[in-house]
Structure formats: C-alpha cells, structure tokens
Design brief:
The complex is a heterodimer of chains A (320) and B (321).
Chain A (H helix, E strand, L loop, with lengths): L1 E6 L2 H14 L3 E7 L5 E7 L2 E7 L6 E6 L35 E3 L6 E8 L5 E9 L2 E9 L1 E2 L5 E7 L34 E7 L2 E5 L9 E2 L9 H4 L13 E8 L6 E14 L8 E4 L2 E7 L18 E6 L4
Antiparallel strand pairs in A: 1-7, 2-3, 3-4, 4-5, 5-6, 7-8, 8-9, 9-11, 10-16, 11-12, 12-13, 14-15, 15-16, 16-19, 17-18, 18-19
Chain B lengths: L1 E7 L2 H14 L1 H5 L5 E6 L3 E3 L8 E11 L8 E10 L4 E9 L18 E5 L4 E7 L3 E8 L2 E9 L1 E2 L10 E4 L29 E4 L5 E4 L14 E3 L30 E7 L5 E11 L10 E4 L2 E7 L9 E5 L2
Antiparallel strand pairs in B: 1-8, 2-4, 3-4, 4-5, 5-6, 6-7, 8-9, 9-10, 10-12, 11-17, 12-13, 13-14, 15-16, 16-17, 17-20, 18-19, 19-20
C-alpha cells in the first residue's frame, strides 16, 4: 500500500498516517491532542504497538515502541483528560515501552509531501516526509521478517538531524554519525534504532548504544555486515543499484556474540548514485520507490546543506 | 538439483564418478540438466609450466558442457587429474572456458580461466556431489580436511543481456598452488567461499577473468578486495570495530542455524555486487560440525568447514536437493 499527499505540520502528518494505518489493518488506540497542544497517535497491529507523539512546539515526532496500550486518563472521546508527568506524554509510560524513542525532527512545517508505505499482510508502517524540496526524513516501525525464532521483533527507527534546514550540518558516514545526525536503520549517537526481542529468556529492547549484552548490529553501523556492501554498488556492468536487505543481529546473553534476527520487510538499503529522489524502480511485478537518507547531496563540512551522499532507502510500493 | 554421496577409491576414481554422475544422473536427466562430456584425454603427459616449477604428471582430462537451468545454455568446464609422487600430491586442476574446440589443448581453449586446484589424495575419499544444470559442488573428505570446489554459473544480479556468462571457478587453491598438498595449513589453502590469495575466478561481463580473495586481516584489506560476503570483512577477535565477518555470528535465537546468502562483492577493477553462489550459504560452526544436516522448511542443508579450519566463522551450508 502506498499513499502520498501534502501536510501542513507534524500533527497533520500524523493525522494522515492514522487514516493510512486504518487501511493497512492497524487499530487506532488513540489519536488526538494531548497536553499543551501535543498530539498522540497510538496504533497497534497484533502485538506491535506504536506510539507517535508530536510535541506542541512542532520540533519533533517521537516514535515509541511498546507491547500494549494503556488508555488510563483518556476521556470518552479520546484525548487528554488527565495530566500526570511534568509535561511529558504518556506515550513513554506504555506497557513494555522502549527505553528511548526514534526521533524525526522536521520542524513546524508545512512540508512538501508525505509518502506512506504499508501492508495489510505484514506489520509495518514506513513513512518518508519531504520536509523541503529535496530534503527527506524517514520514520519506520513494525515487526521484522523474523529469523530463527526472533520475537516479537518490534522495531522503531527514524532520521534525526540537527537541522533539516540550516546549511551547516552533515553526516560523515551513516555508520558513524556525528553532530547529532543519524540515519534511519543506522546506529549512532542518538540510537535511532531499537528492536524488542526475547533473547535467552529475557525480553529487552536492543540498541547499538546499549551496554553488553543488549546491543544490536544494524544494517548501517559499525560494525555492520553491509557497510562494505553499500560501497560496491551500483553495478558497473549494468549501472543498476542492488537492493541490499536491512538485516539485524542481536547480542546473546553471553556477550560479544550475535544472532541473526531478521530483516525489515519491504525496505532496502540502496545507493542513490544513479537515481533521483522519488524515482521508481520496477523489478518483476514490484515497484520500489527510492529516497535519500536525508538529501542526495555531497557529504561535506560546514558549507553544505544537509547531505547524505548516495545513501538511500527503497520501499516497496505495491505491497498488498 | 541432485545429490550423490559416496566413497571413491582415490582422486582418479572421484573424477570418474563425478563424470558419470553429471552425465547420467536420473534426476538431472529427467530435468534436461544432465551435462555432456565433450571430450577426454587419457594420454598421460608431463607438465612443468606451473610457477612452482615442479613437474606434474597429467593423467586424465575431461571437457564438460553444462546446459544451465534453462537446458539450452552452454557452460564449459575443464577438469584434470594429476600427480607428483615425490611430493605426495594427487590433485585436480580446473578451468572454466567460453567454449570448446576439439583441436585445442587444455591451455588453448577459448577464453579459458587460469588453473584452479583442489587437493586430494590416492586413498579412499568420502564425497558429496551437489549439482544442477548450471553448477556442481564437490566436497571431498581427505583425512580430517574438507576439500571442495564450485564449478559453474552463479546467480547474477542482472539479466542475461547484461551479464550473459556469470561463471565461478573455485577450489581450495589458486595459481601457485598446483604443488600444494591437502595438508597445507596456511592462508593459501582455503575453500572457494572464503578463498586464498586471488584463489578463485569469475568471468565478468566482457569475458575477462576476475580474481577473488580472503577476508581482511594479515593478507588483504577487505575494503579493497574482491571478497565473498558474509565471510569477508575480516574480524579476528569477536565483536570489535572489525566490520562483519562470521566470527561473531552464532546460532539463531531458537538454536537453528542462520543461512546468509553468499554474495560476490567486487571492488576491483570496478565495483559490482555480482550475485550469489547457487545453493551456498554462510552459517555458523558454533555448536555444529562438518557433515551436519538440518532442515529449513522442505529443504535440507549440509554444513562443512573450510578445509582444515573449524572455528565458528569457517563454515558453509550447501542446499541439498
């Protein structure tokens, strides 16, 4: 499933996402204004609970993962009826909630467009927001195509950039983010990726920045099993970019050894070298739509606008 | 795809049984994927042109043509058996080629690759043959070593019009290893999936032969080498800044074994992700050993170690029929 449109603000973006999620088989647990003009969208599908929270100042959208929804404090029509946490929302107090949130900080809007990707058959909500012309952010949550008994394998991830507009910020490489800039599905300073999994009898949220033994190896992080893969595409023999699976590995209790936990569904790492943002790639009966991690622009210090070189993500547009 | 497991009396009998399997196996034949033996040469001759300078007694050569999965392709493989008794060497040498001409010798076939080798011996050899119309995998157990080769096409990341002849020729030793015995235990003796120095070959889109290397570490920098994922990228001491490698991968969370595709990641002379070896997967040796089989869905896989190496990062899984 795919939908696109324009949006005036983070809250407007989430309101459109709510409608899309319903069509993709998600249940909306809450969607409404929260304290001080904040906005909380809570959805779930099966055991995967996602809590999107747009702050009133429109600085950021937070995505929290959880194993449930606690509606205590909500009024009959939804929305805030009781405040209990020093200005913070209850999204972070939900059952099994992630210890941190994936953060997408596009600013107040309006934005050029949103692009939503989902599936009635699988459990994920992926969205890309074109913040200003040519500058994008990603926010993704769902359940991995699990391998070898990984469960519940819920993930949350997002693009976090120090600024989507100020022309001084960069990321030298996605696997080693600096200056507060981290790409979706990578690991870095702001831990932009969390995965919930039961490993060796303990349910934990894994992230790259955790202490052993609850670390993860992301598709774009150091170490990663695909860091060098990315640099070997596009193919010289046909000038096409290979769609690289976004695979994840979780640490075992014994420490320093990892198990393959699975891949993100209908999302791939791709080099943008021969593609423009929003290009579509047909492969057999599938159509993949490609976006830069933030902007297809040279990665450079200080004088450049936000740039992520040729790092990009491809999303399958025609998932049922 | 078909599999034959058995025991050969020696390196020559192993070649005889392989030829028979590829050309007459009932499953391959029923699928139209049986191979054709174009010619043989059973006239012994001495060859001393290898860079090691040791003369080899070439005792048998065969020229095979595989029909591909489509049954209409022409994939050319050369296999030869030789010995050097004073060195206690009883090996095969192997080549890929772009064609076959009856009047030409082993060395003169059109577009032939350099020689590649698999170290065997003149004693009984338990073996595993795994073949389809486009490639064969041979595993031979020599004492406690597992020698192996992959001969034929891989699965390219491109259509035939872009990459018409994606051939992979790999054993356990590349150029310079003709005089290697199976007991060699250094970096120049390694299985095709994590090969020795320039130890295996692929045929590129122009018909030129590209060489492939080990993972990083002492010998090569994986960032600049043609190497095979997931064994590439070095990593020598558990989880560390060393990128990738199989040394920190263990069993899946439920105790099953991972199956990671074997991806050909080329850096020189140009960058390419060429494709994947057909039926070859990275797995872990943690809690496992060679010859272990396991099922995933309706498919069965068998694991082997890389020649003499048996650390957890030295294992491969082959899909059986």
């Amino acid at each position: 499933m795919y939908a696109t449109g324009s949006c005036s603000s983070p809250q407007d973006l989430l309101n459109s996402l709510k409608t899309f999620a319903l069509g993709a088989g998600w249940t909306v647990d809450n969607a409404g204004p929260w304290i001080g003009g904040d906005y909380w969208l809570a959805v779930h599908k099966g055991a995967c609970f996602l809590h999107y929270y747009a702050t009133a100042d429109n600085v950021a959208i937070q995505l929290w993962g959880a194993t449930g929804f606690n509606g205590a404090g909500l009024g009959a029509t939804g929305g805030f009826t009781g405040f209990n946490n020093s200005g913070n929302a209850d999204a972070h107090l939900q059952p099994g909630v992630s210890p941190g949130f994936a953060c997408f900080n596009p600013g107040v809007g309006p934005f050029v467009a949103y692009h939503f990707f989902g599936s009635t058959a699988d459990t994920y909500l992926h969205f890309v927001c074109e913040v200003t012309a040519g500058i994008f952010g990603h926010m993704n949550g769902g359940v991995l195509l699990a391998a070898g008994g990984a469960a519940p394998a819920i993930y949350i991830t997002a693009t976090h950039w120090t600024s989507f507009t100020t022309p001084v910020y960069w990321a030298g490489e996605p696997e080693n983010a600096s200056a507060g800039n981290t790409m979706a599905f990578a690991a870095g300073e702001y831990n932009p990726l969390f995965i919930l999994c039961n490993v060796d009898g303990a349910l934990n949220w894994f992230t790259a920045g955790n202490a052993s033994p609850t670390r993860l190896v992301a598709a774009l992080s150091a170490p990663s099993k695909t860091v060098n893969t990315f640099g070997r595409s596009p193919n010289t023999f046909n000038q096409l970019s290979v769609l690289i699976p976004l695979s994840f590995y979780l640490e075992r209790t014994s420490g320093n050894v990892f198990s393959y936990a699975g891949d993100a569904i209908d999302a791939r790492l791709i080099t943008m070298q021969n593609y423009a943002p929003k290009d579509e790639i047909p492969i057999g009966g599938d159509t993949w739509k490609v976006f830069p991690m933030i902007a297809k622009a040279p990665i450079a210090y200080a004088t450049s606008p936000p740039g992520s070189g040729n790092y990009g993500l491809a999303y399958r547009k025609n998932a049922a | 795809m078909s599999t034959l497991i058995g025991t050969a009396s020696d390196y020559l009998d192993l070649l005889r049984q392989l030829r028979n399997f590829l050309t007459t196996d009932a499953t391959l034949t029923a699928a139209g994927q049986n191979w054709t033996e174009l010619a043989t040469n059973a006239v012994p001759y001495v060859y001393n042109g290898d860079i090691d300078g040791n003369p080899k007694n070439i005792v048998f050569e065969t020229y095979l043509r595989a029909p591909g999965l489509s049954t209409t392709e022409q994939i050319y493989i050369q296999l030869g058996a030789y010995y050097a008794a004073t060195l206690d060497i009883y090996n095969w040498r192997m080549r890929g080629a772009l064609g076959y001409t009856p009047a030409s010798t082993w060395f003169q076939q059109p577009g032939a690759s350099p020689d590649n080798y698999i170290a065997l011996w003149n004693q009984p050899i338990p073996f595993w043959f795994i073949a389809n119309g486009q490639r064969v995998i041979v595993v031979a157990k020599i004492a406690t070593d597992y020698e192996m080769c992959y001969l034929g096409k891989f699965l390219p990341d491109g259509v035939p019009g872009e990459y018409p002849y994606p051939l992979f020729i790999g054993g356990t030793g590349g150029p310079g290893c003709a005089a290697d015995r199976y007991s060699r235990n250094d970096g120049y003796h390694a299985a095709f999936f994590d090969p020795n120095a320039n130890g295996v070959f692929t045929c590129d889109a122009s018909g030129a032969w590209i060489t492939w290397n080990h993972w990083g570490g002492t010998y090569y920098n994986a960032n600049a080498a043609n190497a095979i994922w997931p064994w590439n990228d070095g990593g020598t001491s558990g989880f560390s800044p060393n990128q990738g490698g199989m040394n920190w991968i263990v069993q899946n969370i439920d105790g099953s074994y991972p199956l990671l595709p074997s991806r050909l990641e080329q850096s020189t002379p140009s960058i390419n992700i060429l494709g994947s070896l057909d039926g070859v997967f990275g797995t872990t040796g943690q809690g496992s050993s060679s010859e272990t089989t396991f099922a995933v869905g309706a498919d069965t896989y068998i694991t082997f170690q890389d020649t003499f190496r048996n650390a957890r990062n030295n294992f491969v899984a082959f899909k059986l029929s």
